[in-house]
Amino acid sequence: MPDNKGSLLPVYVLVDESYSMNDYADQLKEGVVSLYDALRSEPMTAAKVRLCVLGFSDDVAVRLRLSDVRNTNTLPTIRIRSNTNYHAVFTDLLTRIPHDVNSLKQDGYLVHRPAVFFMSDGQPNRDGENEDWVAAHRRLTDKAHTSAAPNIIAFGMGDAWPQTILEVATRQEFAFIAPEKSDVGASIAKFFDALTASVIESGRSVTSSTAEIFIQKPEGFRMAIDLV
Q1: pTM for this one?
Q2: Which end of the chain is more exposed for a tag (fewer CB within 10 A), N or C?
């Protein structure tokens, strides 16, 4: 067994790359790069975080594999594609997260429960497989099935339904919705501002003896539970 190298927080950012995001591709790209740069600017905090950026559409694409951003120069990017497949997201995480956590443990780290930040501007497309996303989500978040079951923090905007975002989040206080008819581009910018603050504060907490996940509500967003 390797010596204990300290504690880490794996953070996964899931970005909706469906076609409805086409007009906001620049804001998405700027947002993920700003998160990456902000974390790199705080090396002590970055040392406690492993960041992964995933884009989802018909399937899940790795935009930044789980990394210590201090040791990579690979800028994450976003590519707008086609549909909105929630089933693909949670099926992917069912294998990705346990594999990543086991790898970190084998490298000698203590690993905090992973945090997944999920953002979408719409509803999952209605087809047989995609409609079964709830079952995959349930397996992912059930600690009896997935020992590294993550905390999922969900953010909806545009045509996303509050009830759906509430179902994605693992706790009702982890589900947020942008105001109805608000500008999606502006909502994306506010999401990434809050995401960056959340990741940095959560990373800072790992350095203390009372590590906990920190969640900042994006400016103007509401709790999804208040809208269902």
Answers
A1: 0.95
A2: N
